[in-house]
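Handout, section B. The chain below has 86 residues.
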Amino acid sequence: MLRYRLRTLLILLALLPPLLLIGWGKYQAWREERERARAEAQARYAAEMRARASKLYWTRIDEAVRISDMPPNWRPSPKSPPGEGP
């Protein structure tokens, strides 16, 4: 009826719980380290995106300021209506 002898089952019963306990602890540590690394990578990505957005924002503001610094005749001359040109 029993496939394994009682001695084999007792040996497994004695060895498996400590092995599972050690393995579970290492798995928990690995999972926490992985979560911490993911959070750091996400924070670096968010900081990089904020820096890029800020740089783009300030570049556009600088361009707007440069327009006001242009000479008064910077605007293009008005075009003649269609059909009235040379």
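Note. The chain has one domain: 7-67. Compare this with the example in section A.
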